[in-house]
Design brief:
The complex is a heterodimer of chains A (953) and B (78). With 953 residues, chain A is an alpha/beta fold. Chain A is built from 30 helices and 36 strands. In chain A, α10 packs parallel to α19 and α16 crosses α17. Chain A is globular, with a radius of gyration of 29 Å. In chain B, 68% of the residues lie in helices and 0% in strands. In chain B, α1 crosses α4. In chain B, 40% of the residues are buried. The chains are: A alpha/beta (953), B mainly alpha (78). Chains A and B meet through α22 and α24 of A and α1, α2 and α3 of B. The structure holds iron/sulfur cluster (3 copies) and FE2/S2 (inorganic) cluster (FES). The site of one iron/sulfur cluster has 13 residues of chain A, from α7 and α12. Chain B: This is Formate dehydrogenase.
């Protein structure tokens, strides 16, 4: 594959009106959608008009005047980027006069530009250079000394890209990219005329400015002014491979641009339907962990966790794993071992791990870390709608009129989708922006950010989601705002009536629950009215909904609201879980839960089970297996003895670290397959080095049910892709698997899973992506679900009674802790902490309201101890009004903090998804890390020792 | 490690779990709540947990809510 840039058509596609226009460009007759610019029309027909200030991911601006054309019957030379096509128009893109004019423009630019092309990092990849060539510039009459621009200092503060103002041509593409695409408004053009220049907000450097390092401006810049540091270091790429980000559930696709085996940069792919050419700092820049020196490259084993690790060959490690599992099963029984699949691994790898367990271990003891994040989504949406997935694609948000965000912080957790959402929230071309309702204990960024402001922010007390949503339902029912026609047609009317009677009780009104939620009843009423009557209403929710003792109830309460108002089954509406890790959706789809096969079919379902039995040639267990917390309990009780953990760090990500540690310590064989010696590996007996998403083929499924290819761009430095390692373990256990390539695994998935029947690699390569269900009934996949009726038949209204959590505040633990994530770090941080993203988030901080801080004599930056009934940790305080009095907040990205030492083991009633979002705590000044943290650090250091190789021979 | 460690024993947790399910579906009315709770255990609990909870209804009956006790009475243990 050779390197070419993606074609830039100069201006974005026209907003679809359905009408088209016919015109003539350089003698060719062409027909294009109304509203298309002359520049885009010309580009789409294959002729490129010189341009500098236009690029097709931002609106045209018309400042450089390089793109002039002649239009018959019009005076002057209109700019083709700002002039829309018209019926019968006759355009000429090249003439003597145009050439002259364009050269004149170029001359002006070049006279103020340093001519060090040969040593410039963008050499060969610079639009200024290209355009100088395109207009045939040969001479600069002004001389090169009129320059005002040159010799300015570079801003190298951002860890990933440099800003060299001397090379800036003030085209403002970066400013427009930051405003329109990213929505951060961090850049401005200061000054006028020749003195004008680009600057991050208020003359700060990039790192200390508002900039979130999404890279949109770098991509938009036509010169070397904004350039990836890696390009400066390595040079321009020579090939590109399209692949999918391995960080979050947005599932952005990128062109991995390579020079030989070295990754030069990740550039968001314009044709990617999830991200539409945008990215965030993680996917764009934070991939350095893939080559980090901490990566473990050789398999290791040890007899006890007291011993140092011993490096062994792959053969030995695999044989040891298989024989340990067999030994344990013969001693303690078939159900004494199990495994955990990863939402970070591919669909194919996940499928293989659960197959290893069901086919090879002969039980259903398989679970996934989705347990700790979105299992309530699976349960809630399956119960109400009949399928465990979000109902829309991301594009749908552009048709929404009212956006309700609950328990999610998209600008930090799902940044690229948040940028889309913000685009819809800002007015555009006279169309008002969508209205916004935010239900969250914290004042998240969306509540107020440049050009976006929530119409209603309901800052409820953590743990009262169900009460709040029921109160909104109360308003919708009692004020007759429900959509009777929709309900009668699509849902069970009697169930609706039962539900309506339940929510209409006065005890469930906004007024009645005000003392509970702490939110003014009038605001709740207004928000409910807006959602019910404001046009297309779309709900987006995250872990702030699921990670509660009533997570499943909250998901069902959300589904009830959407059904009651008819906001399901078309574009612009729907119920959309924002998934945490990149492949949470995929891991759930692939049968990672102990009670179901791929495609959400219960293990007790005889037809499904016999299909798998036939394919796999063994009888399968009809009884559900153990979930992660149940496995840990069984381990402490001595009945569960061995576990295979792929790509997960349950010690750090699961609640109540003590409980997890005790469970792991009680097992005889803990196998961890991961990139790094993670925290869980401190309790492991076998370590199998994993591979990164850059080193393997496969697919990920994002939060829109979109299946996208992951493509290998370099050989695995640990030797094997993860699916190959699982296959070796399976074969050492005698299963006789013969996959040569992940595409064969997908073929098996397709054959065994009706919703995936039409998913094959050749198809994905052609389409770019497919949204399941993709089968005979929906050959091109399914962007919007439940269009003509619910998957389960009739939509089911489920009465969701508010049951307060047992985790209660009291005199000893008077504050409520809630947890979350931030933009630059990802989950337990194993990857992002090994990149320069540390520049933005070097440690976890405890957010506390000024009043609570003052009462305790805590100043900003002080070390504080954070205690709950489960344990204690310490970290530094950050005093802010983003949290309400009585509520504190922290992230859990750093193992030193171990926020989960203090979270309890209360969990969702239906799925055991842990209640991360509510823990009663006390906060006190302290001197530094707690004893536990020090002990833990010592234990971790001890347990991570690797014996020198001589000793191992 | 801190001695405040709040880790429920497996038995306590199983009882807690079944009561929690029962309490969350109680609004459906007694009969449906019992069925829903029993179905839930049938669909999501592993056989050892089912046996365990059944045994606990005999040894620690006083700790089960009425719905929970009735529901456990209906599950068939493999
Ligand atoms: S990196 Fe993103 S946020 Fe920062 S200035 Fe550029 S476009 Fe704006
Ligand atoms: S930094 Fe680049 S994109 Fe921004 S104005 Fe200068 S040349 Fe244009
Ligand atoms: S982390 Fe998420 S939003 Fe960021 S680039 Fe990756 S998939 Fe996109
Ligand atoms: S590209 Fe049209 S004016 Fe600059």
């Amino acid at each position: 594959m050779t390197y070419t840039r993606e074609t830039d058509h100069g201006t974005p596609p026209a907003i679809a009106t359905g009408k088209s226009v016919t015109l003539t460009i350089d003698g060719d007759t062409v027909t294009m959608p109304e509203g298309t610019s002359i520049m885009r029309a010309a580009s789409l027909t294959g002729c490129s008009i010189p341009k500098l200030c236009a690029t097709d991911n931002v609106e045209s601006f018309g400042s450089c005047r390089l793109c002039l054309v002649e239009v018959e019957g019009r005076n002057g030379y209109p700019a083709s980027c700002t002039t829309p096509i018209a019926e019968g128009m006759v355009v000429r893109t090249q003439s003597e006069r145009l050439k002259q004019l364009r050269r004149g423009v170029m001359e002006l630019y070049i006279s103020d530009h340093p001519l060090d092309c040969l040593t410039c990092p963008a050499n060969g990849d610079c639009e200024l250079q290209d355009q100088a060539g395109a207009v045939g510039l040969r001479d600069v009459r002004y001389g090169y000394d009129g320059a005002t621009n040159m010799g300015q200092a570079k801003d190298q503060s951002n860890p990933y890209f440099d800003f060299d103002p001397s090379k800036c041509i003030v085209c403002s593409r970066c400013v427009r990219a930051c405003d329109e695409v990213q929505g951060t408004f961090a850049l401005t053009i200061e000054g006028r005329g020749f003195d004008s220049k680009v600057s991050p907000s208020q003359g700060q450097d990039f790192l200390s400015s508002e900039c979130v390092s999404c890279g949109a401006c770098v991509r938009a810049c036509p010169t070397a002014t904004l350039t990836e540091k890696k390009v400066v270091e390595v040079g321009t790429p020579d090939r590109a491979v399209v692949t999918t980000c391995a960080y979050c559930g947005v599932g952005c696709t990128f062109r991995a641009e390579m020079r030989g085996e070295e990754l030069v940069r990740m550039v968001p792919w314009k044709d990617g339907k999830a991200n539409r050419g945008h990215s965030c700092v993680k996917g764009r820049f934070a991939w350095g962990y893939a080559q980090h020196r901490d990566r473990i490259l050789n398999p290791m084993i040890r007899a006890s966790v007291e011993e140092p690790w011993r490096e062994v060959s792959w053969e030995e490690a695999i044989a040891h794993t298989a024989s340990e599992f067999k030994r344990i099963q013969s001693k303690y029984g078939t159900r004494s071992i199990g495994g955990i699949t990863s939402s970070r691994c591919t669909n194919e790898e996940t499928f293989l791990v659960q197959k290893l367990i069901r086919q090879g271990f002969g039980n259903n003891n398989v679970d996934t870390c989705a347990r700790v994040c979105h299992s309530p989504t699976g349960y809630g949406l399956k119960t109400t709608f009949g399928t465990s997935a979000g109902t829309q694609d991301f594009d749908s948000v552009m048709q929404a009129d009212v956006i309700l965000v609950i328990g999610a912080n998209p600008t930090d957790g799902h940044p690229v989708f948040a940028s889309r959402m913000k685009k819809r929230l800002r007015p555009k071309d006279g169309k008002p922006g969508a209205k916004l309702i935010v239900i969250d204990p914290r004042r998240i960024d969306l509540v107020k950010s440049p050009h976006v402001e929530a119409d209603h922010h309901l800052p409820l007390r953590p743990g009262t989601n169900v009460a709040m949503l029921t109160a909104m339902a109360h308003v919708i029912v009692t004020e007759n705002l429900f959509d009777e026609a929709f309900i009668r047609e699509r849902c069970d009317w009697d169930e609706f009536m039962d539900w309506a009677a339940f929510v209409a009780e006065p005890s469930r009104s906004p007024e009645a629950i005000e003392p509970l939620t702490g939110v003014k009843a009038e605001e709740v009423r207004a928000a409910a009215r807006l959602y019910a009557t404001g046009g297309n209403g779309a709900i987006y929710y995250g872990l702030g909904v699921t990670e509660h003792s009533q997570g499943s109830s909250t998901v069902m309460a959300i589904a009830n609201l959407a059904m009651a108002t008819g906001n399901i089954g078309r574009e612009g509406v729907g119920v959309n879980p924002l998934r945490g890790q990149n492949n949470v959706q995929g891991a759930c789809d692939m049968g990672s839960f102990p009670h179901e096969f791929s495609g959400y079919r219960h293990v007790s379902d005889d037809t499904t089970r016999s299909m798998f039995e036939k394919a796999w040639g063994v009888p399968l267990d009809a009884e559900p297996g153990l979930r992660i917390p149940n496995m840990l309990d069984a381990a402490t009780d001595g009945t569960f003895k061995g576990i295979f953990i792929q790509g997960e760090d349950i010690l750090q990500s699961d609640p109540n670290t003590h409980h997890v540690a005790a469970g792991l310590a009680a097992m005889e064989c803990v196998v961890v397959q991961d990139l790094f010696l993670n925290e869980t590996a401190n309790y492991a007996h076998v370590f199998l080095p994993g591979s990164t998403f850059l080193e393997k083929d496969g697919t990920f499924t994002n939060a829109e049910r979109r299946i996208q290819r992951v493509r290998k761009v370099m050989a695995p430095i640990n030797g094997y892709a993860d699916w190959e390692i699982v296959q070796s373990v399976a074969n050492a256990m005698g299963l006789g698997w013969t996959y040569d390539h992940p595409s064969q695994i997908m073929d098996e998935i397709a054959a065994l899973t009706p919703t995936f029947a039409g998913v094959h690699y050749d198809r994905l390569d052609v389409e770019g992506s497919l949204q399941w269900p993709a089968n005979e009934a929906a050959p091109d996949g399914t962007p919007t679900m439940h269009i003509d009726g619910f998957v389960r038949g009739k939509g089911k209204f489920v009465v969701t009674d508010y049951v307060p959590t047992d985790e209660k505040t009291g005199p000893r633990f008077p504050l409520l802790l809630t947890t979350g994530r931030i933009l630059s770090q990802y989950n337990v941080g194993a990857q992002t902490r090994r990149t320069a993203n540390e520049a933005w988030h070097p440690e976890d901080r405890l957010e506390i309201h000024p009043t609570d801080a003052e009462n305790r004599g805590i100043k900003d930056g002080d070390w504080v101890s954070l205690r709950s009934r489960a344990g204690e940790t310490s970290l530094r305080a950050l005093i802010t009004e983003r949290v309400a009095p009585g509520v504190v907040y922290t992230t859990f990205h750093h193992p030193d903090t171990q926020a989960n030492v203090i979270t309890t083991d209360y969990s969702d009633w239906a799925t055991n998804c842990p209640e991360y979002k509510v823990t009663a705590v006390q906060v006190m000044p302290s001197n530094g890390p707690s004893d536990w943290q020090r002990d833990y650090a010592e234990q971790a250091r001890h347990s991570r020792r690797i014996a020198p190789l001589e000793a191992a021979e | 490690m801190s001695d405040e460690n709040h880790v429920m024993s497996t038995e306590d947790r199983l009882i807690y779990m079944v009561n929690q399910i029962a309490r969350n579906v109680a609004a459906l009315g007694e009969e449906e709540a019992v069925t829903t709770t029993a179905d839930h255990i049938r669909d999501f609990w592993d056989p050892a947990m089912k046996q365990h909870i059944l045994a606990l209804t005999r040894t620690r009956p006083e700790q089960f809510s009425a719905i929970a006790a009735a529901a456990v009475g209906r599950i068939s243990v493999p």
